[in-house]
Amino acid sequence: MRTKSAVRVALSVIALLTAAIVVSACGSSGSSGSSSSSNAAATAPASKAPTLTADQEIAASGVTSDKSFCGTKPLTLGIGDGFGVNAWSQESYAAARSEAAKCPNVKQIVTVGGGDLQKSISDVNSMVAQGAKAIVLIPDFGQAQLASIKQATAAGVKVVPWGADPSGSPGSDFVSYVDWDVPASGKLWAEWMVKALHGKGNVIYTGGPAGNPVGQQQLQGITEVFAKNPGMKLLTGTKSWPVTNWDPATAQKVTSALLAKYPKIDGIISNYGTDALASVRAFQAANRKLVPITTLDANGLSCIYKDQNIPLSTISSRNWLGRVAARKAIAAAEGIQNTEPDKFNLPFFEDSLGGKPLVCDKSAAPDFYPSNKITVADIEKYGKPS
To answer: Which class for 44: exposed (0-12), middle (13-18), buried (19 or more C-beta within 10 A)?
Structure first.
């Protein structure tokens, strides 16, 4: 027994000596390795936010309890909108601002472009001058705003445009561009309208302000689908549309003029649900029969069509993408890797022909957008600049 114990002790001593030698060797050769690790830590993101798939994001409307994107460094975030004057803008502000409000280290600067290009450009410059290290904005004027975005990026600001394509190169001109697949939405609407009208009918399209990139890309998709269906006629043309400026009062006037011009309108495609609702009111005022509509979701529109049992389909108004954009901008400024998707191929949120029920909340405002999963309280608190 003593012999076995002695052997065990000897073996234990040898093992300890061997381990010490290995540790010492690692330590002596690891001074350069330790420096290499430090350098890697300096260049690599501090941490990584959880990865969500596009389908998961869509199903949750971008809602997550995660706060890892916040980091810890004090940060000023600029939030801008090229228009910022309607209900859609309110929910966009609410999405981005409520997400940023999760971060106690983040201060917010909020600007309103008011539909003015020069004001929108100066807003970006002003946010940079006020110390913003991250900016999330809707560049409604597209490429005309790219120069100011590039200047902000050159100044070290992490910019994430969303909701309107500024062109440019993600990764160099800005961090990333967050949006839906715009041409795909136009095709989806057009294909649904072909189905609703059984391949034959006169359709009008309202696409917001003149020449805006969203409206242009959607019109291209609509035109491509209708070209394959010769029974479908786009009364408002294949190159432009009646300008509504995403203003319901203007949209109602525009639709009234179209009703006076065309005795037969069989369907409406609109890239703003509240504009589509305004078109419905024009039809009602003219005592014209309501027609199938495909657009973005709007509570008041769904309530009317649910009661009337008329075909309606909507894609999410997608204001919730502001949550994703805010997370990406803040994470980039904090040195945290964010691998959330940039582009989302949004399906129909409601489709009376496809088994997706219309969502009507009688207690909410007509221009409330249920698909965003934003509360009325958050809209009241965050849906404005101050």
So the answer is: exposed
CA distances from 126 to 121, 130, 147, 152, 176 (A): 9, 6, 14, 10, 21
Q: Which long-range contacts (CB under 8 A, 24 or more apart) does 226-229 make?
A: 226/190, 226/194, 229/194, 229/199
Residues near 182 by beta carbon (within 8 Å), at least 6 away in sequence: 165, 213, 214, 217, 218, 221
Token output for 52 = 């969500």
pLDDT (mean) for 304-329 = 96
- The answer to whether the CB of 135 falls within 8 A of the CB of 78 is yes
pLDDT at 41 over 60: no
Tokens coding 28: 């002596």
Distance in angstroms (rounded) separating the CA atoms of residues 295 and 268? 8
**Cβ atoms of residues 150 and 175 within 8 Å:** no
Can you list the pairs that 168-174 forms with residues at least 24 positions away whose Cβ atoms lie under 8 Å? Answer: 168/143, 170/342, 173/146, 173/149, 174/149, 174/150
Assess contact for 264 and 291: CB atoms under 8 A. no
Tell me what pLDDT residue 231 has.
Answer: 98
Per-residue burial over 204-224, b if 16 or more Cβ lie within 10 Å, else e, is bbbbbbeebbbbbbbbebbbe
Q: What is the CA radius of gyration of the chain?
A: 27
Confidence of residue 45 (pLDDT cuts 50, 70, 90): very low
Amino acid making up residue 380: E
How far from chain centre, in Å, is Cα 15? 60
What pLDDT, in 10s, does the model give residues 80-92? 999 998 999 999 9
- pLDDT above 90 covers a percentage of the chain that reads 84
CB 309 within 8 A of CB 288: no
Helix (H) or strand (E) holding 233, with range, is strand 232-234
Report pLDDT digits (tens) over 227-268.
999 999 999 999 999 999 999 999 999 999 999 999 999 999
Indicate the pTM of the whole model: 0.84
Contact 210, 247 (CB under 8 A): no
Q: Which residues contact 114 (CB under 8 A, 6 or more apart)?
A: 83, 84, 85
